[in-house]
Structure prediction request, 219 residues.
Amino acid sequence: MVLFLVAMAVALLSVTEGLRQMDDARIQRESTISTCLEDIALITRQKSFAGVQLRGQTLEFGSLAEFPKDSHQLDSLRANFLREFVPEMLDIARTPACQMWLKRFVVDGYASPEGSYLYNLNLSLARSQRVLCVLLDAKAPNALSQEDRQTIRDLFFVGGSSFNSAILNQPEKSRRVELRLEFKEQLSNCSPATPGCKPETPPSILWDEDFTCPLAGRS
Prediction:
């Protein structure tokens, strides 16, 4: 009986310790992600980036990333803004506070409700893709460094939404893109030896010198 009680006590201590370690890991993850987001929020407070807001895990650009009606074109002012803002954000993304847990950036495109659902879905995807074309343009006057362009290839993902998130009575504000940060789950960022671990590895995207935007020639 005594040996049984001792064994039970040891087992309970082991379970308790495991739960404590999991709780500590959860707190550490939340704290690190919070630091990452706070650092990115600091960029939006710079005078040169006035109009950008971080809401939760989404960067809203407001009029700085709005599109004309029925178009995925960005004028030079907005294109230059994106090429100035994104490298600053990537510098933060490469810090230990972000790099450990950051999974990817999702460029979400949106459309106003004038068109049909499928037409607007395609248009919103094209708007997201246009942002990547702007950022990966190696011939632009203020082109991003090769390191930044490689990071964008590795971490940026294109998403699109029809008029699901249209801004009521303000169609011009619905023709926009936003940048959403996604973070790894706790068990996806661990040692393969950890029980239940499902480690995520970033995609390996080979570098090439083809910077032609497939949207060229389309309105």
Observations:
- Helices lie at 2-44, 76-93, 96-99, 117-136, 146-155, 171-174.
- The longest helix spans residues 2-44.
